[in-house]
Amino acid sequence: MRNTKSTQLIFDLSKKGRRAARFPAADVPVAPAREWLPAAQLATTPPPLPEVAEPEVIRHFTNLSTLNMSVDTHFYPLGSCTMKHNPKRNERFASLPGFADVHPHQSEETIQGYLELLHELQHMFGEISGLPAVSLQPAAGAHGELTALMVAAAYFRENKMNRTKVLAPDSAHGTNPASAKMAGFESVTVKSNASGYVDMEDLKSKLDDEIAVFMITNPNTLGMFDSQVPEIARLVHERGGLIYLDGANMNAILGITRPGDFGADMMHYNPHKTFSGPHGGGGPGAGPICVAEKLRPFLPVPTVEKVDGKYTLVYDNPRSIGRVRSFFGNVGVLVRAYSYIRTHGPDGLKSASENAVLNANYLLSKIKHIFPVPQGDRCMHEFVASAADLKKKTGISAMDIAKRLLDYGMHAPTVYFPLVVPEAMMIEPTESESKETLDYFAEVLFRITEEPADLLHEAPHTTLVSRPNEVQAARSPQMQWKLEPAAK
């Protein structure tokens, strides 16, 4: 692999004496090492950095960038992850000096505009969700889940209610039970019925006076809106519990319905899924939460408030769960979300959701006779097709299809999730894609089903890495690279 030009390490290109820049000699005395630095910690030789000219640096990293798939370069129907277009105007706004160059320790008097933006965003998120109390601090969706469950725990403690259990459907995102466990609760699974909705009888059998929260994604991970949620909320509330709405799929219902209106007490947003922030690459991210008014006192500090005509960060809240993120969170992501919301306005957000639902249903109608959709002929912004019949007839699996799509220049959908569908392919086209793109994707899926199984078992054929051992990569990742000693 290292012999391939585009995958060489930058160290492989190094030649002694080459430079991308040369600095003038120091015109001041060189300061000696400070006396308090231990001698053993002082380097005796310069660090072994690569020595390369500027053209080589530019070509190297440009070549590496072309090996990646991204929303800007490929169709990316990654179900549940909502890989929608990232408008470039949002990037420009977030890069303005007044946002990008702010230091977190600046005085509030010098960042009134920034604080005003965040204050407005709190109100926007509250209005869109129907839950008025908002914290922008959490750093990711799962972090927002954990934060909201910590808020719930504080609420139950103050009210001297011994609540130990969190319920979640078997189709829930894996972060739901993980967040419950980290917040100190026991996670209890509720079954889905044959239609993919919450099994109400199973839910009722598990409702007792130890229930703290019922967590549900709606629309759910099968791409369907569960109209039972108001009844679920009534049953949970009668027991003194709370409803948590996993906001991962909010892109389907913006401006159409609000979680607070159908019974939710808490929720988080994924700004990268719903409000077009950059997605992937390890972050940074954001996971703002919205909660009902009765939970406001327990939100993390600080929150942005307007006091005597000025915007300020309020820390004085003795009932708060405290800080969950350094400074105020990843505000650059929040600026992008603000830009997206202000650009679209209420009608535009509703239109985005309507088009997301339309695109998903169009694509479902194009492929359902080849890949059955067990949970019905209609969906929200995503749907889960199954390659189980194809695998039984030809041996071609969902993974084979996913890998082969890479050869056609398209990213794979989510596969093998949710677990309740065999050979699952979770497909989400988003509102960003054209009819031509969706038609081509459906055509490619048909082509793949007609290709020899042996060809697919070894796909992809055009990428530099074909099929790595994913289990080994997950369990024993190689996170370091060591420079080999130079030959003498």
UniProtKB/TrEMBL annotation:
Organism for this UniProt entry: Pirellula staleyi (strain ATCC 27377 / DSM 6068 / ICPB 4128) (Pirella staleyi)
- Keyword Lipid metabolism recorded: no
Catalytic activity entry = N(6)-[(R)-lipoyl]-L-lysyl-[glycine-cleavage complex H protein] + glycine + H(+) = N(6)-[(R)-S(8)-aminomethyldihydrolipoyl]-L-lysyl-[glycine-cleavage complex H protein] + CO2
**InterPro entries per the record?**
GcvPB (IPR023012), GDC-P_C (IPR049316), GDC-P_N (IPR049315), GDC_P (IPR020581), PyrdxlP-dep_Trfase (IPR015424), PyrdxlP-dep_Trfase_major (IPR015421), PyrdxlP-dep_Trfase_small (IPR015422)
According to its UniProt entry, the function of this protein is described as: The glycine cleavage system catalyzes the degradation of glycine. The P protein binds the alpha-amino group of glycine through its pyridoxal phosphate cofactor; CO(2) is released and the remaining methylamine moiety is then transferred to the lipoamide cofactor of the H protein.
- UniProt-annotated stretches for the region Disordered: 469-488
Q: Which residue positions does N6-(pyridoxal phosphate)lysine occur at?
A: 273
In terms of domain of life, where is this protein from?
Bacteria
Q: Which UniProt keywords apply?
A: Oxidoreductase, Pyridoxal phosphate
From the Swiss-Prot or TrEMBL record, give the protein name.
Probable glycine dehydrogenase (decarboxylating) subunit 2
| Family indicated by similarity | Belongs to the GcvP family. C-terminal subunit subfamily.
EC no.? 1.4.4.2
